[in-house]
Amino acid sequence: MKREIIYTPLSSLRHPKKLLREMWQDLLASRELAWRLMVRDINSQYRQSLLGITWAFLPPIVMATGFTLANQANVIQVGKTDIPYPAYVTFSTVLWQTFVEALSAPLQAVTLARPILAKVNFPREALIIAKLGETLFNFAIKILLIIALFVWFQIPVTWTVILAPVAIIHLILLGTLIGALLAPLGLLYQDISRGLTLITGFWLFLTPVIYPVPKTGIFGTLVNFNPVTPLLVTARELATTGNLSQSTAFWIVSIITFIGLILTWIVFRLAMPFVVERVG
Description:
mainly alpha; 11 helices
């Protein structure tokens, strides 16, 4: 049975129940397309690269090596960490890069699909889901690096490590939330993608990736108000010590993320037709 679609000038917000029902139907309908897009993008990502899958490991290793040498030379003072510093910064960098991938993915998805958005009618949710799956796949590869770190530095593992994926998924969802919110604007203005690169570079230094969470001072306040901080720190602590220092903040940010995802989904769905009309 074919599904009939009727376009009207009236806003979908006038009928919220119908809007939510259509959103759910399109989400289910987008599964197969999202899978095919994800497989295509993953194959393209690693097939058209000389080093292939090695690129999943190189950035955190290079970054960790640089900051470890700087720390040993007293160029930077990072303080005491719960695990050996090279493992600390490498693991944290993997988490940060996963967040940045999730943040950039929606904008990349709509930008790559720009030529067909105005020509082919398909659930736009498929673009976001495909990139979300690609981010999870890339992180799954990086787990090999994390395991190697734990073995090399003989880091003890507690039972809480089985809960670490929950915090990591929350971190990815936060990135997806922000990215999906910016995606329609990014399709209209290239300044968004350029500004995102600049902002994430500065954002890194407000996130406890290369240093422990500061407790005092203005800088400590900024780091603790950073929404990425409790998610990244909790993921790291669950995988290592098991002692959670920001559990309350973690759940506050997580709840805001879940609510924000639903609202952002609605905004994304309502905005995309107008954006596609402008860029088409």
